[in-house]
Description:
By secondary structure, this protein is an alpha+beta fold. The protein is 16% helix and 40% strand. The longest helix has 47 residues, at 2-48. 22% of the residues are buried. Mean pLDDT is 84; it is low at 1-60.
Amino acid sequence: xxxxxxxxxxxxxxxxxxxxxxxxxxxxxxxxxxxxxxxxxxxxxxxxxxxxxxxxxxxxxxxxxxxxxxxxxxxxxxxxxxxxxxxxxxxxxxxxxxxxxxxxxxxxxxxxxxxxxxxxxxxxxxxxxxxxxxxxxxxxxxxxxxxxxxxxxxxxxxxxxxxxxxxxxxxxxxxxxxxxxxxxxxxxxxxxxxxxxxxxxxxxxxxxxxxxxxxxxxxxxxxxxxxxxxxxxxxxxxxxxxxxxxxxxxxxxxxxxxxxxxxxxxxxxxxxxxxxxxxxxxxxxxxxxxxxxxx
Length: 295
């Protein structure tokens, strides 16, 4: 009797086993459909101990001059709105990671700090060197005759640290009429000098451009050192005024001065060349297009 019951129960148990497995399989399909592929990928990543995103990918670096705070250092203007005038006083401080005003700088290009000023439409470029008092406050005067928004760039190196460029907005109230930016413009005439830019700039790589200087049709071969070199070049990205560090190459005092330019993206850039001749500093302005790099 028991033997017959066992023979009858065996097939029944086998059928029940397969029915249960089928139920579990259908349930798994249903849950998977409700969770969706993204959630499943997240679950799988959690199971392996990694996030679904690539943790090894480094965050994109923010170009210089777009932030008032970087690496614990902050640029603070005494006033962000000033009246127009040819000699407007401007004061600011650079605070360090501890919050106190920074008073210890490394000398860079013969100065502790370079202040670059330009109106938002890339006109009214100025490159000045403020004075610092014992408390760490920097002060200077700027030619802010024309109304509009201005960007200030403080380019400096904390003692023993890395070079930093911080940016801040300064507003001169009034009727702001932005001037269009011509592109490209590789020949600049200023104060009787003609300066020609040659060379192309490729985004994401070091590109060399040459600036050739002539006066009254004659090549200038007796440039005078300015900020420790025969020229100082500032490059700004037109769409957001990102600040590029441009380095002069060693060479003779003219007629050509070479610079290495590292443009982060393709697009339009304004270049400003300061050079000294006859005891006077002159500024030549250019507009170039940086092309896309090779993939």
